[in-house]
């Protein structure tokens, strides 16, 4: 089994989208033809749904999603900035732009309709449990089936950025209040592994760029709850992704876990910086990664089409 795993990271999802477009270009095949299973968190969950839906979108079109829709999704009016105290007392962004983009790109597709099995993470804030959207269960049980637009909206409901969302299963049996699965599975590759541990030959794990901003000891030693709130979130995301890589590199054969993750040397690592300058910089980071790992990509393509 060949698995695609895509990290969370907001607007930085353009990086795995560019890498996937290159994989599709080199192989001449769509991602749904190359992989047997797809897992995604947050922006990676949006990509997984778009790649696996009926009549799947080519990855090159998903690059356009970030470049064209990103500025609308991550847009704040002056009133929103004032009302939310710049994100301190309310979510930073209204979800109108995000909802409209998901409806345009995912339409009325449902989880059960996925052309390749999909696994997407979220978190139930009321009953406090990790929630997994699993298309393999949705096929036979409507209580596990949801619209792909709802799946994508739930997995991208990043706390402080967007408000939580309620989603109801196809049977109308239960409604779940959900937020972004990135709070516990920024890199969902381990979740994918445990779904089919004996069958996996390859996990292609696509990151959205490692953060490079440093936190100096002489400043951090004086921080309290307010100052630590944002840095501890960033550190948690990085630490979780690195831990998954550490585990899977030891659980799988030497070439079983392939991690493609650029270090963000040109681009801003903020998840919501959708400025034209940063979008160009993020694309440049992805293209530099492709150049640096071209031989690895060729080897991966050979395995994917074998």
Describe the model.
The protein is α/β, with parallel strands linked by helices and 306 residues long. It contains 13 helices and eight strands. Strands 1, 2, 3, 4, 5, 6, 7 and 8 form an eight-stranded mixed beta sheet that branches. Strand 5 and strand 6 form a beta hairpin. Helix 4 (59-73) packs antiparallel against helix 6 (96-106).
Write the layout of secondary structure elements.
Blueprint: E1 2-6, H1 14-27, H2 31-34, E2 37-40, H3 43-52, H4 59-73, H5 78-83, H6 96-106, E3 118-124, E4 129-134, H7 135-138, H8 148-155, E5 165-168, E6 175-180, H9 189-195, E7 202-206, H10 217-220, H11 225-251, E8 257-260, H12 276-292, H13 294-305
Parallel strand pairs: 1-2, 1-7, 2-3, 7-8
Antiparallel strand pairs: 3-4, 3-6, 5-6
Helix pairs in contact: 1-4, 1-12, 3-8, 4-6, 6-8
Keywords, separated by commas or semicolons:
306 residues; 45% helix; 8 strands; single chain
Largest β-sheet summary: 8 strands, mixed
Global shape: globular
Q: Which range best describes the helical content: under 10%, 10-25%, 25-40%, 40-55%, 55-70% or over 70%?
A: 40-55%
In terms of per-residue confidence, which ranges show pLDDT below 50 for 5 or more consecutive residues? 78-85
Structural class: alpha/beta
Distance between the termini: 12 Å
Mean pLDDT: 91
Number-wise, the strands total 8
The whole-angstrom Rg is: 18 Å
């Amino acid at each position: 089994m060949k698995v695609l795993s895509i990290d969370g990271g907001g607007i930085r999802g353009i990086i795995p989208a560019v890498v996937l477009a290159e994989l599709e270009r080199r192989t001449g095949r769509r991602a749904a033809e190359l992989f047997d299973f797809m897992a995604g968190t947050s922006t990676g969950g949006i990509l997984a749904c778009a790649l696996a839906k009926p009549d799947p979108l080519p990855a090159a079109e998903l690059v356009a999603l970030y470049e064209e829709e990103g500025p609308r999704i991550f847009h704040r009016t002056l009133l929103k900035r004032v009302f939310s105290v710049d994100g301190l007392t309310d979510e930073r962004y209204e979800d109108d732009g995000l909802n409209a983009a998901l409806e345009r790109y995912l339409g009325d597709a449902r989880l059960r309709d996925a052309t390749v099995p999909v696994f997407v993470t979220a978190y139930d804030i009321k009953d406090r449990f990790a929630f997994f959207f699993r298309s393999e269960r949705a096929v036979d049980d409507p209580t596990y089936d949801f619209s792909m637009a709802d799946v994508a909206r739930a997995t991208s409901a990043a706390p402080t950025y967007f408000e939580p969302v309620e989603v109801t299963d196809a049977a109308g049996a239960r409604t779940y209040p959900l937020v972004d699965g990135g709070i516990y599975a920024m890199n969902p590759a381990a979740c994918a592994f445990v779904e089919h541990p004996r069958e996996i030959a390859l996990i292609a794990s696509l990151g959205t760029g490692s953060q490079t901003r440093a936190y100096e000891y002489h400043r951090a030693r004086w921080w309290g709850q307010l100052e630590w709130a944002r840095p501890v979130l960033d550190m948690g995301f990085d630490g979780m992704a690195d831990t998954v890589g550490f585990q899977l590199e030891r659980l799988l054969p030497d070439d079983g876990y392939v991690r493609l993750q650029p270090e963000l040397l040109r681009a801003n690592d903020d998840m919501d910086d959708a400025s034209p300058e940063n979008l160009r910089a993020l694309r440049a980071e992805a293209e530099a990664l492709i150049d640096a790992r071209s031989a690895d990509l060729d080897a991966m393509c050979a395995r994917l089409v074998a």
